[in-house]
Amino acid sequence: MVQTPAKPETETLLLNLPKTLNLYVTLEQFTALAACNRELQLERTAKGELIVNPPTGWETGKRNWSISGELYLWWRNAGEPGEAFDSSTGFTLPNNANRSPDACWISQERWDALTDEQKDTFPHICPDFVVELRSASDKLKSLQEKMQEYLDNGARLGWLIDPQNRTVAVYRVGLEGEILSNPTELSGEEILPGFVLNLRRVWG
Predict the structure, then answer these.
(1) Residue 10 falls within a domain, yes or no?
(2) CATH number for the domain that contains residue 67
(3) 87: closest CA among 71, 76, 74, 75?
(4) Any residues with CB less than 8 A from the CB of 49 and at least 6 apart, and which?
(5) Structural domains in the chain (count)
(6) Are 126 and 155 in contact (CB under 8 A)?
(7) pLDDT at 12
(8) Which residue, of 13, 65, 70, 93, has the fewest CB within 10 Å?
(9) Does residue 37 belong to any structural domain of this protein?
């Protein structure tokens, strides 16, 4: 008796999509897509639109590494307060969007308040602190809208770092955004006491 090989659960196909076409997926479908495409950074808007971000170039990757590394060192040296994450971590925000900040931090109190189910795969929470690093292909307006989305869903402090223009937009709850021109460092303020990001390594 000849056995027929089992059909693979996934099949790779090349599909070119026009820019005018938007794809919408449920949270369950998004989770399945993310599991099968770990080389991509996938996001999903509150309306369910799928956003596919290709792998970053070396310059953006190096800058991301520097930012995440500085945040990790602060977290470790401060006695591991809260939980810190890099750009590979996705979160389900209260508005149902799935987002992956380039670096972020969540207070221990808010993290511990989550159930095991809420922490599963994409934790159902918006980080207290978020960083977005603009790459050459990123549209500034889209990143600005994402930063506002973080604030609307629970973030208390956010940095939008734009190496192209050497500017940083600082977002705070209840305040107008502040634009810093060519700063050399950023402070975590009262949200992350003692955390200072050296931007010299980011500007390159």
Answers:
(1) no
(2) 3.90.1570.10
(3) 71
(4) 22, 23, 24
(5) 1
(6) yes
(7) 65
(8) 13
(9) no
Length of the chain: 204
pLDDT tens by residue, 45-58:
999 999 988 788 89
Mean pLDDT for each consecutive 10-residue tract of the chain (204 residues)?
A: 53 68 91 87 94 87 95 96 95 97 98 96 96 94 97 98 97 94 97 96 88
Per DSSP, the residues of 3-52 read PPPPPPS---------TT---B--HHHHHHHHHH-TTSEEEE-TT-BEEE
How far, in Å, CA of 168 to CA of 161, rounded?
A: 5
What is the rounded CA–CA span in Å between residue 108 and residue 7?
45
Contact criterion met (CB below 8 Å) for 160 and 132? yes
Pairing relationship of beta strands 103-106 and 129-133 according to DSSP bridges: antiparallel
**93 touches 46 (CB < 8 A):** yes
- Both tokens of 203, joined, read 């500007």
Compute φ and ψ for 10, nearest 5 degrees.
-130, 150
Asked whether residue 120 is assigned to any structural domain, the reply reads yes
Residue 45 DSSP symbol: -
